[in-house]
Amino acid sequence: MPKLTVDVIVDLQYGDCGKGKVAHHLCESGTYTHVLRYNGGANAGHTIFHRGKKFITHQIPAGVFFGIRSVVGNGCVLDPIQFFNELKTLKEGGVDTKDKVFVAENTHIITEAHRDEDRREGVRIGTTGRGNGPAYREKYGRTGVRAADVPELKPYLVNVYDEWYGLFDKAQGKRKNVRILAEGAQGFGLDIDWGDYPYVTSSHCTTAGVLLNGLPPQAVGSVWGVAKVYETYVGSKKFQPDGDVFNKIADVGEEFGATTGRRRQTNWMNMQTLERAIRINGVTHIVLNKVDVLRAVKQWALYDKERKVEFKGEKEMKAFITERLNKLGLSEHTIFFSESRERI
Prior knowledge:
The chain is an alpha/beta fold.
């Protein structure tokens, strides 16, 4: 029997944690037949450095940089204007997208009316205004438009059931093994069910959200959780405490949204929030990004059990985090501390 396996990348905080870097690194291994974007829409942005060039993708999965079949799944909502703009940008940057980028035919579409509604004055939770919320609302209200209804998208459409279960090796006369890397958008703290409601996004940002794209639970292999050693948030709720250190973190970390350019609020990392996300998402590997930022600021702290814990230096903070992650079943071989632009 041909095998179907899925490795998952999931953000454990509020988005902006470096999922694109992790996806790019894993794609480079050459072991995946597909990269699947499993949730969200044009409200997300992955910043990827590829062969000396900086790219920001909002909807197209990272597999395209390595010629891997890259699928926008039905768990997403798609803005066709943004989609075609990204294809153009990638082509201009020297990335060949021909026969490599696909859209699930049952993916719902963001329309101009959705964007206009989302940008009206009075939006109370600080959304990106890209039309995601209205598009998801109409999806679940059974009044939405699907990709199959948009003629311009016809060359890119696939049936994901056929893609996952019907890929055929003509030379050998049998079905191919399929290995998928599933990359998510936003983060666990913004999940429609598990985030700080109503300050959330409109999609499922968890490992479980991957399964909604036609995939069985038993196919899930590694789950790569991604976080920063501090937290950031973009939105209208009060997130950043008083204190100059948080502005310093934002300045050093260049904390501006890849989609909107808005300055991100910052705070110390919360261990209970992180542990909750690790458990619910079944994380097997974790990447903690931007350790260089706290090194530059020269302050190391986090929250644990509703109190602030300060450390003398980076080594002590890493040791504390590692010990706690060990208790959740993560070992030194599956815990990675990474710098802003460092390869994993």
